[in-house]
Amino acid sequence: MFLGEKEQEMGDTERDNATFTQVFTRLAGSAEATVDRDGLFDALCCAGKTPTQWDELCPRRDSAVFNLEDALLFYQHCPQPDPPLIEVAHIPIPTAIVTQKVHTAFGISDQRQEELLDLLYAYDRDGLFDLAKVYDFIKFCDDMAATKDDVLKKLLSKKVESPAGNKSTPPSTQLVSSVVRRGFVIISRDIRFTAFRFLLAQPQKLVVTLGIIRNNDMDDKIFLDDIFCVVSDANTETPVAISLHKDQQKNYTTGELELPAGEYSIVVMCGGVTLERVKPSGEGGEQLIGENKKLTKRFKMTLMNMFEMFDWDMDGLLNRKEFDAFTAASGDDPMSDEDWQVLSEHFSIRDGCVPMSTFLQMHQIEADSCEDGTGDFADMWTSLHLVGYDDHFQLRKACPIRLEITSQTPVTLDEDFRICSKWEERGYVTEYFYRHGVDQNAPLPTKLFMGEYFGVLVTNTEGAQASDVYALKIKGTDGVEMRLAVDPQCFKPTEYHGQFVSLAFFSSSAPNWDVELAMIKMP
C-alpha cells in the first residue's frame, strides 16, 4: 500500500469513528454514558453498519452495559453495507427498520401492520426518522407495561389528528380507518403520474388528503400551493371532488365527502405556477461517478430519493408494478417476464421485489458500462431528466406526494402509472372548474374557480369565430402568484382544444384572495 493510500485509509477510519461517536452520544445522552445490548445494536445500525450474526458477536447478558470505548470496538468489527443506511449530516434511518423493530419486539399481527405503518409515516420525513425521534419512539414502546395489542392501541392513539377538511364541517368522528400511499406527478412535454383507484362497496364518508414529500433534491417553494387532487367517478371520469382546503399541517384536503358506492379514481395535478423553465443540457452537469469509479455520494442520495418516489406502498422495496413504473418513467420499456427472471437471477431480490441496495447496484453497473465504453452517460442523464431532475440533481419537474384516505371502513387503494398529454390530463376537469366557478365580467363567458390556496380562470369558447382575437389583463391580489396559460396579447379561442380553455392558474399564500380580469375583443 502506498503512503498516500494508507493516510487516506486512516483518515476514513477517523471519520467513521467520529460518526459513530456522534451517533452514540445522541443515543446515550453523553459520551460518558453507557447503553445496554439493544442500545448498542441501535447505535451500530444508525451509524450505517450491519450487525450480522449478532448473537455470536454480542452474546445475551441481561446486565451487560457498554461504554463508548466498548461500542467502538464492536463498530470496527461490523461490516459496512453499501449503501450506508444513513446520511451522516442528519443521521436519519429508514422507517422500514423502525417498523420491523417494533413488529419484532411486540409481535404485532399482520392484520394491524398497515395501521402501524400509517402511524410511523405520520411521524417521518420522506421515509426517514430523525434519530432522536426514533429513540424516543422506541423508548415509549418499551415503557408500555401492557399486552401487545394494548401497546399498539396506545401507539395508534398518538397518531396525528385527521385534517380539518372543510372548516365549517369538521370530519366525522366515525372516520377511523386510514390508508396511505406515495406517488408523484412529473410535468414535462407530457404528464407522467401515479394514478390511484379505490372501490366503495357501500356509501360512506371519507376525507382525501394530499401532501408534498420534500427531500433534499427540492427547493422549498417549488409546488407549494400549486398541486391539487381530483377525485372522479372511475367509469365516467366525472370529477366529484377536489382538494380545495389546507389543513393545520399545510396539507391539501377535500374536506369530508359523502360518496355513494362505486369505483373512484384520484389523480394529482399541478397548476405550474411555481415551476421554472429549465432546459437540461442533455449531458448533465454533476459527476455521476467519483475518482474511485463508484457512484458519487450526491448521486446515490438522488437515486435513493428517486427510489422513494416509486415505492408507492412504502415497504422499502419496489415490486414488479413499481419497478415497471420506474423503467417507463425513465424512458425504458417495461420488463418482460424473461427480463425480470434474468434480473432475479443476477441481482439480490427480496420477496420478488427490488430492494434499494440492488437499485443502487444496477445503476453502478450501468455507470461501469459507461466507463468501459459499452454504455453512455448521456443515457443515464436522459433518464434523470425524464424523471424530473435538472443537470444539478435538483428535482425541478416532479413532485413526490403522499396521499391518504381517512374513512369509516377500510378502503383498498390501488396505484398505477400513467402517461398522457397535458390536454388529456386536464381536459375532463376544466369543464368542472368552469361549471363550479364564479362568473366574470368578460365578452366571452368566463369563470374563476377558487379553492383556499389555488384557482383557475376558465373561458367557454362555444360560439367563438376563427377570426376572434382577445387581449387579456389579469391581476391577482396580494399573495397571489400566477401562470398564464394563453398569450394575453393575442388570445385566439378557436386555436385551443375543447370548448373550455384555461386562461391562467393561480396559487395564493393569502387566506382571502381574488383576481381581476379585463378581456377586450380586438378589432
Automatic annotation (TrEMBL):
GO BP annotations, alphabetical order: positive regulation of protein localization to ciliary membrane
Alphabetical keyword list: Metal-binding, Repeat
Coiled coil regions, renumbered to chain: none
An example molecular function term from Gene Ontology annotations: calcium ion binding
Gene Ontology CC annotation, any one: ciliary membrane
UniProt domain EF-hand: residue ranges: 298-333
PANTHER family the UniProt entry points to: EF-HAND CALCIUM-BINDING DOMAIN-CONTAINING PROTEIN 7
The protein, known as: EF-hand domain-containing protein
